[in-house]
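Why predict the complex rather than its parts? Because the way molecules touch one another can change local conformation, and only a joint prediction can capture that. The input here totals 576 residues.
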Amino acid sequence: MTDPVLEVRGLTKRFGALVVSDGIDLTLKRGEIHAVIGPNGAGKSTLIAQICGGLAPDAGTIRLKGRDVTALPTRTRARMGLARTFQISALAMEDTALQNALLGALGAAGTPWRFFGPALSDPALRKVAETALDRVGLSDKAGHRTAELSHGERRQLEVAVALTLRPAAFIMDEPMAGLGSEGGARMTALLDRLRHEAPILLVEHDMDAVFALADRISVLAGGRVIASGPPDAIRTDTAVREAYLGDEA
Amino acid sequence: MSREWIVNAALIAGLIAVPLWAHLSGEPFTITLATRAVIFALAAVGLNLALGLGGMVSFGHAVFFGLGGYSMGILAHHAQNFLPLYDGLFLIEGTKSMPVIWLVAILVSALAALLIGLLSLRTSGVYFIMITLAFGQMFYYFAISWRAYGGEDGLSIWVRNGFPGLNTLDPIQFYCLCFALLCAALWLSARIARSPFGLVLNAARQVPARVETVGLDGQRAKLVAFVISGAITGLAGALFADLNRFVSPTMFSWHMSGEIMIFIILGGVARLFGPVAGAVLFVAMEHVLGDLWDHWHILLGGLLLVIVLFGRGGVIGLLAGKAQSHD
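Output of the joint prediction:
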């Protein structure tokens, strides 16, 4: 049994009287997709923010590859291979798709303090960026401005940037959001392949995608993990049905 | 060749042809005007690195312009009066040598930019504008009260400083020197904009969160850009003082900060040659309209309004169309 890549223990965060994370335990193991679902306001976004470093927890620890990263800034976690995609695309809209991917490659290479040679003609960076674009199926859009890309293509670009980071773990915040059925199917297929490269912590509202992809599902409600287990167990869990799934499942 | 390239080339050609024509037909005042435009352009190329590329709306770049000016003023003042600048453990004399003055101006401005940037970059948006403005005013009032160097009256330098191998008293030779420095700064800016560092800075302006999540330090990139920006504007300040053979607290005033910003907005924010187009247009308007009407600033204001409302790309945007990404 190998150690989990990402391990969250007793994570707690309060905003005043409101407890948004209430002793959350969570692990992400090699090769798996671990989905986190829950109704709006369950604390999914604050959980991601704490894992990625944008928000400091009040208590609890976050370990990445065995190392306690709870107090480390976002960029240090990123350099350790924590690759995040945003719910609302956070891309440089004025730049091309290739430039966005290059930024990731530059971050992974750790050599931003170069003031002369053009970034676009650095063969090593370019190879990483172009490979990532190719893998998400955006090769033909490399030279397009991000502002000109469709919503679905921007979601793909988010994943491409994450891929350039030589990820140890992906943290994906609703990668399916706003994708049509065709786009959703393509993204599902992509994530299915990616899990073997690095495990994915997937926060997602699209239940079809979650049940198709997830090896394990944790259900968050009121800041607490109310159930965790394989999809079949979650589907039949009565507490989950009450809190979240309603009659759909 | 893109249209922007043609517009830029035409600007450069104009900045060569007009002073050359003025020189041949014996119009030194026109050369002085062109020198003024080129020095303003250099100051604005500096600011454009912070404002255009880094998104840092500095309303205090007169600090660096003034520091460059006073670096020149103080060094030359000591040299012309044969007073040592420092006479303690060792001796530091003033100097009339441009290269030395430039180096001092660049270092002093860079250091000031580092300190101001460290504090100002803790804020953003309107607060950043206000804190840089506050620093500008601090330096302005300090210069006014600094009696040793003329206080409110400023410092007069009797003879323009020298450059090895050139006669800087000849307007066209001094112009060539300033023009060469402008070209060097433009070249540097173009390189930086396309470099890996430029990529980070560009992204830090647009999506700070993204830069952090790929493991890069956007704030530090902004600070470095602010330092380079201040150094270039400082160099322009040293040249400006040498052009006028005079330096006074007005170089530190917020009007000056505003004018440098106006050059960029007139010419086109984040366009490589925007500051050049803006400074040339400003000096031309100042000369032509200023002769006709004392209140020509009203027309400048109107023009600014039109550009901000209808053409964010400024003059360059008007002539060359939308900005191309650096491919």
